[in-house]
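Late entry, evening session. Most of the bench is empty. Finally got around to the prediction I had been postponing all week. Sequence below, unchanged from the version circulated by S.P.
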Amino acid sequence: SNEGGSVSDDLKLYCSLLSNLTRKIHDVLCDATGEISRELSWKQRNSAKKHAWGSATTIGMLLGHSHLLSHFDDSLVESALLQLFRCLQLHAFINEKIFAAAVNALSALPASLWQYLSTKNCNVIACGLATFFSFLELPQRKTASAYQANVERLTKALILIANKRDFCQMFLLRESLPFSIDFFYQWLTSCDVQSSTPLEQVVDAVTSQEVEHVIDVSDIQIFLSRAAQRNQLVQQDESVQP
């Protein structure tokens, strides 16, 4: 039917737009890090920066329509989010407005988007967590610190939905996005009050073969002790109840 064709055209347009906006951010970030040597004049470079922060804002709006996610390729959404994460990773090297637009775009995304991605076989949740922990643990310059509360809210949201696979990937990413196990543990215990699930998933992750080469035995012991402590409290509560 005509209506079906129109919906299909709209989705194609949406995908094409998301892809183009993602590329604009990618190009500016590569330019900032010198990964791609582009002979640009000051005017062209300035224009590209404006496109990048506008792109970050628009990506946030596009991904806000999370009911459309099941209609298109997850890798497209993953690419867009990974570029927004890179804006945080490279915040010291890029224009502050691009960084701010990326944080605002990520902060405005609905919980349903993260929930949807947590059921997929992708690295978005893991990369998000590694990016946020790495960002939060480092002392920030003034502009970046103004966005700390937003990043903290995002971190908490992702910890609560991450599964064993996400935490395994997150630990493996510490090589390129460093953060300390102690810092992560503090965060985990603050979220542990809300739900015991993150701790259970982390224990499954740290005791798996996938990450044994990147986590010290002493660090694994910290998580196991916390889990044992928590189980003890749960058992005490159950025995007190009539």
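Two things to note before I forget:
DSSP finds twelve helices and no strands in the chain.
Residues 2-33 form the longest helix (32 residues).
Will write this up properly tomorrow.
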